[in-house]
Amino acid sequence: MIERTAVLLAKKGLQGASFSEILEASGAPRGSLYHHFPGGKDELVLAALEHAANQALGVLDRLPGKPAREVAEAFLSLWRSVLARSDFSAGCAVVAVTVAAESPDLRAQAAEILGSWREKLAALFVEGGIPKKKARALAASLVAACEGAVILARAEHSFEPFDLVAAEQLAMIEAAAKSAS
Predict the structure, then answer these.
(1) Nearest-5° Cα angle at 12, 105 to 60
(2) Is there a contact between 113 and 94 (Cβ–Cβ < 8 Å)?
């Protein structure tokens, strides 16, 4: 149910991921939803956000000590694969919740997740040769650029905008790494 909810959030947004659709997508009986998530939809969405967060962090956890460019390429590849696997029908579940949630708890969880991605990327960039002060800015830029590039690619049903943004991000990261050497 959690994984299917994350997928529905990424495809249809917070309002589009109804309990009925979640049950249909997961094949779970209605009673199990209320049994496992007595707090209702918000509790399930929080679990789905954690699942989505862990997928991105799992990719980043395999990259300590890698060059900054390789770290950025892996993060970009994660988002490109979301677009490819979904034929441009899915984006980021965390962003979907961020823009639509009325619940302060959901927005706070989304903020925490986006912050954790930025922190992890910044730490990996430092390990990969980028100065700490520059690494934080590049990490924020990469997260923001990926989210925006995913939106553009979905809207245009094309990898072109994503690839253009990715190339610019990689050029910035490469330039920062060279200036640090």
Answers:
(1) 65
(2) yes
